[in-house]
């Protein structure tokens, strides 16, 4: 049979406490009996010293009063061999025994003699003959102390001591039971958490209040649970990233081939129609730029999970925003969506212009898709002390509330046909530029904000112009 930790502590400790207390009770009982014996030995002499002058007429009543004051005692007064008074009936043979009992001298213990005394039912008495200082020299006081009464006093004393010891043991065991129970409950809570950890629940749930060894163990378990939770999250993100890379690589490979063919077809169409008058040359240019953005996204998909460096082109932020407007404005016009742009001229520069442009276009296209038809789309820029904020707002219904906390994670989407990589790419672009992306829903607007560190053109003007020229 397996004993719990509580019983393993409680049983030995309870047995040890009981043994110790009852041993002390036994010693105390022996001491009590010794004290009682001493009192009983000296009591006859004390009684004799307290008696007044002898009055034979009142002697019998005085002995009765003396008997009431000293339970367990019988008294008799002798003058020579004559019994003057007695509180007990004495048989002739009792007198024979009493005559041979010597008188106890002052300071000498009594109860050295014992015998069956009395008429009818005889009882054992301890006999002590004393001289009373105020009485005549030939008169003696005989004290007869009941042996049964002495035994009864001894048993009562032992019983009281044993009862007190038992009560003390019960209280001690109660305290020990509560203490070991409290300790056992704390250990069981830790055990339950370890079991939960083994099942995959890494929440730190053990409450820590003190600073003893069990609390140190609880802190260690909580710390282990937190670390395991972090490791689980790291593994989950790593696995999702790996799957994202595998999926993105396969999709991007096929897309790149299609984009390459589409761009060649546009170039051929432009060459063939060079001599013709087209309704809008901007439409071909816009289509070509859309393909460039799509190709940039494909390149980013192919770079997922790989530690390869991509070429970054720095451009003025206003130019990037103008490109975005050029790309999304025809779509908004077709969907009857009101496009609003809100920014002033600024000399801010983005290091990786293609990634930022692709991220903003992605947010705008998501907004257009959410609106459907007849709505508002807003693209704005705010400049702060150390950061710039790119805001894309739309009047669509917004993301599913159940996905609010996981919106920027790979493969998280509420679209039946979506794969959940668009916003993950937006987050990657923002973080690669040293910024962040967030979203919120207020009133009828859904707002996405890309926050980037400020990079004024300043002394980098020649570098930016060179990069733009090479890109052209």
UniProtKB/TrEMBL annotation:
> What kind of membrane protein is this, topologically?
Multi-pass membrane protein
**Which GO-annotated molecular functions does the record name?**
ATP binding; phosphorelay sensor kinase activity
**Is Transmembrane given among the entry's keywords?**
yes
Q: Where located?
A: Cell membrane
Any Gene Ontology CC annotation: plasma membrane
What residues does the HAMP domain cover? 181-233
Q: Alphabetically list the UniProt keywords.
A: ATP-binding, Cell membrane, Kinase, Membrane, Nucleotide-binding, Phosphoprotein, Transferase, Transmembrane, Transmembrane helix
Source taxon at top rank: Bacteria
Enzyme Commission number(s): 2.7.13.3
Q: Which reaction does it catalyse?
A: ATP + protein L-histidine = ADP + protein N-phospho-L-histidine
In Swiss-Prot or TrEMBL terms, this protein is called histidine kinase
| Annotated source species | Kolteria novifilia
Q: What is the lineage of its organism?
A: Bacteria, Pseudomonadati, Planctomycetota, Planctomycetia, Kolteriales
Gene that encodes the chain: gchK_3
